[in-house]
Amino acid sequence: MDRKVSPLSKLFLALIFFILYAPILFLVFYSFNSGGTMHDFKGFTFDWYKELFQDTRLLIIVLNTAVVALLSALISTIIGVVGALAIHSVKRKQAKSALLSLNNVLIVSPDVIIGASFLILFTMAGIKLGFSSVLLSHIAFSVPIVVLMVLPKLMEMSPTLIDAARDLGASRWNVVTKVILPFITPGIFAGFFMALTYSLDDFAVTFFVTGNGFTTLSVEIYSLARRGISLNINALSTLLFLFTMLLVVIYYFLTQRNRTNGLGVRK
Question: Looking at residues 183-193, what average pLDDT do you find?
Answer without folding.
Answer: 88
